[in-house]
Specification:
8 strands, three-stranded antiparallel beta sheet, 154 residues, alpha+beta, 18% helix, five-stranded mixed beta sheet, Nucleoside Triphosphate Pyrophosphohydrolase
């Protein structure tokens, strides 16, 4: 029996220039950048989870963003073999994610990585076509699907 996928929410946050927020992971020595994402708690709505994760990871509160779009389907990714059994207490093989596109209605000053449980050491705005080069290889196909889902808004 193979491991299940972890239910999660992903957030593509755009600024007024249609650039995408990316954060550099604090828990790895790699130059690993990603968009905010995280698990959906039992009984939690995916949109509520996305807003919670956005604030937990970036400090941006729900009142400083507007929902632009939601990907029509869940998107999956598998962990590479060397990470299966090590992350998420070894319970999952990857994630099945609901993705949401938000626009920042506030300013860069609303981003504060010094959250109670920091996940990013640095952040920046990136052009959508830069994402492929910034992220870890095992998430590239997922990010291509996210970009395709939100292409009309980029």
């Amino acid at each position: 029996m193979s491991l299940p996928y972890r239910a999660a929410a992903g957030i593509m946050l755009l600024n007024r220039a249609r650039q995408v927020f990316v954060g550099q992971r604090i828990d790895t020595a790699l130059e690993a950048w990603q968009m905010p994402q995280g698990g959906i708690d039992p009984g939690e709505d995916a949109l509520a989870a996305a807003l919670r994760e956005l604030e937990e990871e970036t400090g941006v509160p729900p009142g400083k963003v507007e929902l632009v779009a939601q990907a029509p389907d869940e998107l999956l990714y598998d962990l590479p073999p060397e990470l299966v059994g090590k992350v998420w207490k070894g319970r999952y093989r990857g994630q099945r994610q609901r993705w949401f596109l938000f626009r920042l209605t506030g300013t860069d000053a609303d981003v504060n990585l010094a959250t109670p449980h920091p996940e990013f050491r640095a952040w920046r705005w990136a052009a959508p076509d830069e994402l492929d080069a910034l992220i870890v290889p095992f998430k590239r196909q997922l990010y291509a699907q996210v970009l395709a889902a939100f292409a009309a808004h980029l």
